[in-house]
């Protein structure tokens, strides 16, 4: 009689991807090889209540526990200090000490009402709803972004229709992928756009600009902008109609006003075009 036991498959996750092993004991080196991760990356075991335990490449790990083991791997240079995992909720930046969080964790850290609906912005696919019990991996390259909505009276859980600001900002990011949108408690918002190309009239090849989105936008027009230092004209003169104010005291404020703003025809993207036109003037 053949008394051998049938083969068993042991599941584990690394960087939010699931893999299977026929061996119940693996080393971090073996996990990285199977997942196609750079061998120089450092592996951490996910801990629900702590940043995670860093594992030596040769440490044997049992995969036969009652729950699926979770790990994340990051470049060694990023692991020199205890990593903080950044994410955005409704345009605000937050940090977590651990990469494996649930929807409930995200709402708690962001101070979102417990009954709010939470959605994750899709990078290459549609946005998806994140349940309170859904696990989210914050260790992927880039920053994960989420947005919230209070439940509709009819109990609908579909992703809410984006308002004009969110829709326009998504279009802006198609051209300027490093642009940032920060909602403020008073209902205004700040937009920061790095990588604005400059003409040879300036001593720098690029600039980072900021502007405020007022309450009532887009009916209320955009007005004025700031440029982060350094920004210097090559001829040594000060740019025309500039100064400093309390909102961004370290930045150079351009008193520049748009004539004939149309809430139906103009957008964040066209306003950045207006800013570029002003800077291209080179004075």
From TrEMBL:
Domain Multi-ubiquitin: 85-148
UniProt cross-references to Pfam families, sorted A to Z: Multi_ubiq, Prok-E2_E
InterPro entries in UniProt: Multi-ubiquitin_dom (IPR027802), UBQ-conjugat_E2_E (IPR025701)
Protein name listed in UniProt: Multiubiquitin domain-containing protein
Protein species of origin: Deinococcus antarcticus
Lineage of origin: Bacteria, Thermotogati, Deinococcota, Deinococci, Deinococcales
